[in-house]
UniProtKB/TrEMBL annotation:
Gene3D superfamilies: Hotdog Thioesterase. InterPro entries: ACOT13 (IPR039298), HotDog_dom_sf (IPR029069), Thioestr_dom (IPR006683). This is Thioesterase domain-containing protein. It comes from the Eukaryota.
Length: 245
């Protein structure tokens, strides 16, 4: 059983974002961002409580959420992000300028920044193909966040069934990249998500990826670790209930 909130470690990871805490005070973009952020919040809460130190732990701590959308991504040309040597900037209420593919068929998106550390490299000092699979797996799952509902593709509920990856250009260790997940199809049990690794300005596409996932129910014990998003959804449900009276 998960510990009570008062007994849990309240320290936050560096990639934590802060957004309004009531559904009706949030913009559609903020709701999408929070839907993605909730995946990370619950992950870190479980990891702290259980002492989890698995293969994906470093990546989930180093990915920095830049943007998310319900529908096609925000269209722009460049991205404003702190360099690795400068302190992270506070999230802006307006969408950051991120390269986008504004296709109407896109159901939801998430975009992250990641600096390729030696941990993800190979002996040639470039990003390892196995690390690409890990990055694409986690980012394409997190991209479902804006569409997730109670009992429907909740916390990291998609298990990758097939992944087709195109390695277009090597990525030297130390490179700052943007990682995109675009949800193209989401049903009750199956999903199709496209992933991309690009330069921050979008001029270089390093990797493309097609991922098919099978939806599985989230573990009951995992959902017992509550995060802010749970309270926001309850606030939404309460507001809708009052509106029907």
């Amino acid at each position: 059983m998960p510990p009570k909130d008062s007994d849990s470690d309240d320290s936050e990871p560096d990639n934590k974002i802060v957004l309004p805490k009531r559904w009706h005070d949030m913009t559609p973009r903020e709701r999408a961002m929070m839907g993605v952020q909730a995946q990370f919040d619950r992950y870190h809460k479980i990891a702290r409580a259980t002492g989890y130190t698995g293969h994906d732990m470093r990546l989930m701590s180093e990915l920095k959420l830049l943007d998310a959308s319900l529908g096609p991504p925000h269209s722009s040309t460049t991205s404003k992000i702190s360099s690795p040597s400068s302190p992270p900037s506070s999230p802006s209420p307006s969408p950051p300028e991120i390269p986008a593919l504004p296709q109407p068929s896109i159901l939801a998106t998430a975009t992250f920044a990641l600096t390729i550390s030696p941990h993800y490299g190979n002996i040639n000092n470039v990003l390892h193909g196995g690390a690409v699979a890990l990055i694409m797996d986690m980012v394409t799952t997190a991209a479902i966040g804006p569409l997730a509902k109670k009992g429907y593709w909740e916390f990291l509920a998609g298990v990758t069934r097939t992944m087709s990856t195109n390695y277009l250009k090597s990525i030297p260790v130390g490179t700052l990249v943007h990682v995109h997940g675009h949800v193209m199809g989401l049903g009750k049990n199956m999903s199709f998500i496209k992933g991309f690794i690009t330069s921050p300005d979008g001029k270089i596409v390093y990797v493309t990826c097609d991922v098919n996932k099978v939806g599985l129910p989230a573990k009951t014990e995992h959902m017992g670790y509550r995060v802010e998003w749970d309270e926001i959804w309850e606030d939404k449900a309460e507001g809708e209930g009052k509106a029907k009276l």
